[in-house]
What we know:
Blueprint: H1 9-25, E1 31-33, E2 39-41, E3 48-59, E4 84-92, E5 99-104, E6 137-138, E7 144-145, H2 162-168, H3 184-187, H4 192-195, H5 200-203, H6 208-215, E8 219-222, H7 233-246, H8 252-264, H9 269-287
Parallel strand pairs: 3-5, 5-8
Antiparallel strand pairs: 1-2, 3-4, 6-7
Helix pairs in contact: 7-8
Amino acid sequence: xxxxxxxxxxxxxxxxxxxxxxxxxxxxxxxxxxxxxxxxxxxxxxxxxxxxxxxxxxxxxxxxxxxxxxxxxxxxxxxxxxxxxxxxxxxxxxxxxxxxxxxxxxxxxxxxxxxxxxxxxxxxxxxxxxxxxxxxxxxxxxxxxxxxxxxxxxxxxxxxxxxxxxxxxxxxxxxxxxxxxxxxxxxxxxxxxxxxxxxxxxxxxxxxxxxxxxxxxxxxxxxxxxxxxxxxxxxxxxxxxxxxxxxxxxxxxxxxxxxxxxxxxxxxxxxxxxxxxxxxxxxxxxxx
Length: 288
């Protein structure tokens, strides 16, 4: 069932935040002008290049829905979508050695953390059970806090528990809130499970995707949910899927050959610039 969530409170709040960030970045991005977007206008300094990401699936049995047939005849279509090819693409309107702004959709898979990241949900109350070894945290005074038990401890080298980490910070109260309907979400200070994720070092933990991109000196942003029009790769997929449907022969071999041709069919640089410009127009409309 499809639910239109454009006006959901959290979606509106994040959309506003997203558009404000894009407003900051836009003056540093090259602009394309002219009937065919053939001319480039570059910023005076510190250029930022938008690199957008998205995924799409091409299926062997998904062809044109409307066909011409003699009266009384019906096309014999194969059941189901058939075997499919999943394509993941990065797309940009210009390629150069500048700082890039990588834009991804708001999928939960993009919020995965590194195996040794400090994530409170991975921690146990006590020093037993399965728990990953995490890198060092930080005390309130800025000093490093090891997340493994010291050499003199009977369980030396094992990961520290929630209780141990908070005891070392003089913040331990109890593991869970006694009142299930308490205000733990509001204060973040009623119990261990509420306190530890609200610690500055835990809150500052970046997901793996953001860490990888920022360490390389680039920027990252995620599109708002329910706003595919902001991502110009969606228009790229639309053209590629149209080509694939038009040339569908309902075989796996045919699909393999068609997908690469479909992607190449919209590979003109001017087309990318036009698609990107259209997305920025939608962003301008979203600010109104």
